[in-house]
Protein 1
Amino acid sequence: MRLFYLLGYAAIAVFGYGVYVQIRKYRRGAALKLDGSFQARLGDMIGKVLSHRTIARRDPAAGAAHRLIFYGFALLFIGTSTITLQYDILDPLFGIRFWHGKFYLVFSLVLDVAGVALVGGLVYMMYRRRWLRLPKLDYARPDRAPGDPDFDRPQYRREDWAFLWILVVIGCTGYLLEAARLVWLQARPDVWDTRWWSPVGALIAEACRALGMTEHGGALLRHGLWWFHGLIALAFIALIPFTKVKHIFTSAASLMVRDPQAAQRLPRIPESQAQAGVAKITDFNWKQLLNLDACTKCGRCHEACPARAVGAPLSPRDVILSLRDFAKATLESGAIPEAAELDVHGKAPGQVAQETLWSCRTCMACVEICPVAVEHVPVIVQMRRKLVEDGAMDPLLTKTLQTIHKTGNSFGESKRKRAAWTKGLPFPIKDARKEPVDVLWFVGDYASFDPRNQKVTRTFAALLHEAGVDFGILFESESNAGNDVRRVGEEGLYEVLANANVAAMAGASFKTVVTTDPHSYNTIRNEYPDFGGRYEIQHYTSFVKQLFADGKLRVTSPLTYRATFHDPCHLGRFNKGYEAPRDVLKFLGCELVEMGRSRANSFCCGAGGGRIWIPDPIGSEKPAQNRIKEAAAIPDLDVYVVSCPKDLTMFEDALKTTGNEGKFVVKELIELIREAIPVHRPEEVPA
Amino acid sequence: MKILVAVKQVAALDEDFEFRGDGRDVDPDFFIRDLNEWDDFSLEEAVKIKEASSTPVDVVAVSVGPDDVDEVLRKCLAKGADRAVRVWDDAIEGSDPIAIARVLAAVAKHEAPDMVFAGVQSSDQSFASTGIATAAFLDWPHAAVVSELNYAPGAKTAVFRRELEGGLLHEVEIQCPAVLTIQLGINRPRYASLRSIKQAAAKPIEVLSLADLSLSAADVGEAGSASRVRRMYMPDKGRAQLIEGDAAAQAERLAAIIREFKGDSA
């Protein structure tokens, strides 16, 4: 008995040391001050853990199984702890004993059920891994080739199975112990008569007796098993900080430090920091290092990633796991290795390759679905900042950034031509710099310069005009909003653009900002406040919905199209603008058929994160093509509706390149509104 | 060791530009200014040599122009130049490439570099003579249109290749110091991030006057120039037209045009 206590203390000591090593690892990261109250964060985390809301999303079976494991494990842990509490603390010190009578019986029933839940959940998880062979649980990496040392990482699989088996064995030996005790003490009525309060144990005991086990046999079995069960349990505790078991703590902590705006509002580079972005593992902040350890390899980000889906060398899961392995190799030993060994950029195991970082569309699908609040997008963008600083990027992207710096737009057009689309409109557009307006329309680059989108822009201007909206634009004082420049990682240029736009808007008098561009919408709404620009801003979909609700726009010839709607990343996932465009489609009379991947699970067109300026590799499928194929599977589809200028460009192109031209059309929602409210004859347009 | 890189701020035309009052140039209000593309390559070549060298190398960017030229010099500093020198005096206004070369040669004497790089030409004026004229003033060996260079700072000679007509390459060994004009494509110029440009703003740009270089107003401007721009203008539009229709209609139309040209009245 004394030996067991000694081993117990040793296990706790190993556990404690492991916790110390982990915390020391996180503290080796950069500093970060969290905002928001501790209580609110704690409450949010507890809510998510208890409800398993985030784990059940898009995989209810895994959610249910994990819930069984979690509650089974938690109850058994609490049960065992209370036994220890009485046996080792309360009874010897104060003579308090509560483990008897009715309480004991109810408790043994609860723990028996908890054990069933635990083992049942674990067995289902084994079934998933062994028989369902879910692609998201395949550890083969799209950014490595077979034969690379970290290609499919069999050590991960071994750890997964060891984890499942150790818990199954602990659970099952617990039942056997219970049964052996019953067989051993079958002569004692206080034990035997209440045996059905632990039904599984009793059932096994009956079976053992039927097989001829004697009281003596039961005693022997119990003695041997007791040690076996105890030692495995102690080993499990000792191993927690060194294995995936630590997710119990790291995932909970990660949920607690979650930033709900992680992808929407990227961090600024502090004035005091000379270097831009992340070069070394220690440039990540402690929260990001914790994020790495929170990952449970569930593969949901891997499954949701549009880059991965089209075979690009990126899986958000593997970025995180690679960096985790890197942090483990470098930051868990006593002394931190030299700076040269901390470089996270490259192709060696643990490092992240340039091509991987440049494959990202910053569409936020990974961040959005992660059940444990891993924030991949800021990690990738901060690593890109370093690449931009080194000039390690596609030459075309370099050219575009230089162009944006020079002209304020990505089309390389003269600033003076920014409002050229207004020429030929039958009514003047107010210059918001010169006269006050109700609505400042932030037009954005694509809507201003791209010829196809200019048509939509003119239509929207006409609709606003006909609805009697008092609006104006900034003409050549408007610059590229910078959303994508920031996501490329060119933070200095972003600062220039954001400051220029904030200054231009400060020179105008308006009540609210409206834009047709979800990218501009996101950065103005979520990021300009950090630059002193705080505005009430709406995407046009919600603004138009209000115009319909107020009767300022009326459908005069309802549409009968069968339509599907593509949620733009920056409107939907980023800013939860799911309903307004759908409501407008209903107002117009369209029949809305949803694609399998919609709303939060919308599939990026591939243009985000600056990828619109980087050519996709020839021959490979583009995300927009993948998406159009999904829409093409909808029977009798008439219109694929978009509400983002970049989407219009990407999907009209994909419609042609996938050979679906003529089967259905890609249209801006604005164009459908125009169709449902036919144009007045020029003479009817109020001057 | 030192490499002097001559750079120029060039002007690109904005949409709908107008000419200056005297009709000899475009109104500067319609310019979008930037670092000359060729100079981007020659600066990159110098910085690459510096980075590959075991001995310390100073890369000095020099430009002739008023204070708004500091913008391109800051870009050079951001891309890895160690120092930036700008020469200006109002008398320099109106200089042709020969007068500018006289100033650059004076800077080279002042700085005593081991090598001088210039771009083959500037994208706005395309004289392609500044670099070579600088060599003439210095009386140094020179070569134009260098497309590949092998040079170790401090070496007595450098070996380079030049592209000739018909896909021929010219491999040349040259005595140092020398003046080389660098061709596009010799390397891949790095990107100067906005942050690095901002940080470069903290580095000083040395401003030299004519007096600092022992030059006088007569050496520069129109007085020191060998040529003078008389007029800048937009030529009349050509008269190309597309003839449509089938072969017979096209032939008929073509014949009519020829007759019209000959002055025949059909």
Protein 2
Amino acid sequence: MKHFADLINALESTNKTNAKIDAIIDYLERAPDEDKVWFIALFTGKRPKRNVNTNYMKEWALEITGLPFWLFQESYSSVGDLGETISLILPAPTQKIDRSLTEWMTDILHLKQKTDAEKKEFVLSSWDGLDYTERLIFNKLLGGSFRIGVSDKTLINALTKFSGQESSALMHSLMGKWQPEDASFRELISAENINPDNSKPYPFCLAYPLEKDLHDLGSPDEWLVEYKWDGIRGQIIRRNDEVFIWSRGEELVTPQFPEIEEAVKAMKGNFVIDGEILAVSNGKVLNFNELQKRLNRKTLTKKMQSEIPVEVFAYDLLELENNDLREKPISARRAMLEELLLNQAPGNITLSQTVDFGEWKNLNLIREGSRDINSEGLMLKHKDSPYHSGRKKGDWWKWKINPLTIDAVLIYAQKGSGRRSAYYTDYTFAVKNGESLVTIAKAYSGLTDKEIMEVSRFVNKNAIEKFGPVRTVKAELVFEIAFEGIGFSNRHKSGVALRFPRILRWRKDKTVNEIDDLEEIKKLIQ
Amino acid sequence: MKLITFTNKGIYCPRGKFYIDPWRPVDFAVITHGHADHARWGMKKYLCHHFTKPILHQRISPDIVCQSVEYGEAININGVKVSFHPAGHIIGSAQIRLEYKGYVSVISGDYKVQEDGLSTPFELVRCNEFVSESTFGLPIYNWLEVDDLNKRLQSWVLKNKENGKTSVFVGYSLGKAQRIMKAVEELGKIHVHYSIGKLNEAFETVGIDLPEYEIPDFRESVKHLLGEIVIVPPALLDSNVIKKIPEAATAICSGWMQVRGARRWRSADAGFPMSDHADWKGLLQAIKATEAEIVHVTHGQTEVFSKYLNEIGIKADVVETLYGNDDEEAEAEIPETQKEQP
């Protein structure tokens, strides 16, 4: 497993994408082909099912070390990863086991038929034969998530560089149905079992935030205005009876939306649609939070599909019957899109509505109303605009609603996980409620690394409770919290729920006396 | 009367009328070692080990009144027998042993049981009362053997040389920097930042033998450092000084690097868990061996560690101090953008 351990080490010790790609290429040059297949499988989420319960692993580690459970929990909350915590508290190995990745994976797959006692013996002897890094990897191989900061995209880029194969073909090939036990590296890379032309996406056309006065855009007649939706921007491709859904991050997400795949499959013809995948129930677009619940799951249950139905709001048509339409003006493309959907639109693929506004002066009011329908503002597209590759100024503008903001004080802090496990990164904020404080929001992002370190230092010095992962801190640090919406909620102690709260900035200029009052905040609710 | 008490100025010996590592100005301060959270300015009189004296002169002022002693040499202060014993933390670091009418208190400052090949090895001192740190008082912190760790540093340097990179180590200027120098001394020319050079010179004045080094002037071009070894203090991480070094690969040397999350957090190319503090096993081994009836835990993982000590039958309590805000113990070290040489 040495090559693989070296790779993990190299990937972890850099946050530069190019260095990660180099490390992967270095691994591909040295590792045997069968190991490479396992490497790709592990890094693309094709993991075998967990055969050893994590609670048992924890139990065995406590048995070996004789440590009390609470101390294990303290350690875990400091490390932020169970497999790593176990690998660190175990005593140093007394033997040396040297086997390839494939050999390890084969043994781990075979655990399925083993008894608990046999599993225990296998795990304990493996722990005793591996050093810290290898032990950690072993624990991860046993079935935990293998999150290592390498996106599918980075992996594909490395494989592209290594093999010379086109990236969309590789993505298509790797997304296919193959089993690491019997796939061959050469077949995967050569993409010989697929027709890569069917899946090839176009680069997305992106918009800049509106930076000028509406009147400077010219006549309102020249512009097509749509709502801006907050979902998964995607390209839906139907070619030669195959269907592919690409996300804007250029990842194939087809398996995540089986109902859309099915609906598009049932349509006729060949086309490429640019649209937004949204959770929609009874004609109403749901919060992004709802959509998020069903993203990136290993298995998508029927229940989830019926609870959170998805639809595509179609924006644009990029290709029809193998003709690239991107140079045509959007007015023409949109007409063709309308025709395509008019003839055979399934219920869950609908045309994105355009906004009739007449004069520019009416548009701001419409934009402000977009919050009510869970839209995040407006998109302005010049009617003559082609479908650009990437971001180009002038033809497309996004005009988002301004976030709402409040000033609140930090009262609880918790350490993050993974890369952030050494620092307090997860915060809970409170506002005034008469003479006392009441929690109003949790927020995770928005601060720089440097600020997070500074807050962590404050938390370390001002923690009131010192056990467990959460620290109660002196109410002193004031932050400006931005959010997209606010509503009454009886699930929250404050009686209000904020939508997408995030830290806008640290208000070092303000004291806890200057934070907002709950009664005032309630007035924001329309 | 208790032999030591904990006051808002520091650890106090009322019978001897002196403080140990006080954080406010007092008349008489006994100092365990030269790190800034233990040796502060403003004391009328300092007492420390011979090797710590030049550090205090360097860090605080050449004008301070400072007496120094040898390890094991007993002196009498107002009837209290005071002696210094190696703490193994950094060069000159000492545990302070106080004895009065057969009762012994030991204030260990910061300590490390592992021999680092540079500091005088930790000496076990039996006592009735032991004051201990707990910087790494969680069972996840168990250090590699020094030889194994040094080999890792060495192979990293060799790999960098192969790839035409400059090896830039980030480590505290007092203690860690000298250990890094020792670990890589055979592998090439060593360049240290001015602030490290100053402390090296202080050590050299008391006859400590360090590997050869040079002090580059970072205000000038530093192109000649290419492919060699450079050591800088943590304050320079992410600074322009590091950015100036050609083809720099940076490695942070700190006990916190034991945990993956901490390694990934910092924008360094490598992290080596090199620490001058006792690891989990070291803390327990030292504390058990002192046979102390009571252990006072001063800084680090105080709550968790003292709770565990009590569970395994060693009476322990937590004492609030201002230690642990310097060197490796400051978990959330804020990098300063740039510190220029004077």
